[in-house]
Specification:
By secondary structure, the chain is mostly helical. It is built from 7 helices and no strands. The protein has helices at residues 2-23, 27-46, 48-56, 59-86, 89-105, 138-141, 143-151. The longest helix is centred in the middle third of the chain and has 28 residues, at 59-86.
């Protein structure tokens, strides 16, 4: 009852301000103020204010808000754990793209992909160590990268 009275008073005051604004020949502003002033009385007439007033003082409604908050926190926690475990969406897409590109270039690889796997012959000298200052063997060049990929399960 109190909320309906307050909303009605706000609407009447807003319509009064709109009338004064229209008297000053600011019709566009007066129409806008009148529109804002009619919102509270419209909410009272539809019953939303009564529903909100009963919800604000209802322990069941507040318990429902607490349950919704707990669900939201669980959702955020699972998302953060998922991101830590699997990486962000951009990282997963980049890894998938790299895997597709790696599949496309895998037949041209000169060394074994896994330790103990049979080596394929290098096509047209692709596995030669030309211009490399380190002088490492082809299967040792990517050992650190393979270790990182194994660590991440790729």
């Amino acid at each position: 009852m109190l909320a309906e009275t307050i909303c009605s008073a706000v609407s009447v005051a807003g319509l009064g301000i709109a009338a004064v604004t229209a008297y000053r020949k600011r019709f566009l502003s007066a129409a806008r103020v009148a529109a804002y002033a009619l919102v509270p009385i419209g909410l009272v007439m539809t019953g939303i204010v009564k529903w909100l007033a009963h919800t604000a003082f209802s322990p069941t409604a507040w318990a429902g808000f607490v349950v919704l908050g707990a669900a939201w926190l669980l959702f955020l926690a699972t998302r953060s754990v998922e991101r830590r475990k699997y990486g962000s969406r951009k990282e997963r897409r980049a890894a998938a793209r790299a895997a597709r590109e790696n599949e496309a270039t895998a037949p041209a690889a000169s060394g074994p992909a896994l330790p103990g796997a049979p080596a394929r012959p290098a096509p047209d000298g692709a596995g030669r160590n030309t211009g490399s200052s380190r002088g490492a063997k082809p299967d040792e060049d990517f050992s650190d990268i393979e270790a990182i990929l194994k660590k991440h399960g790729i």
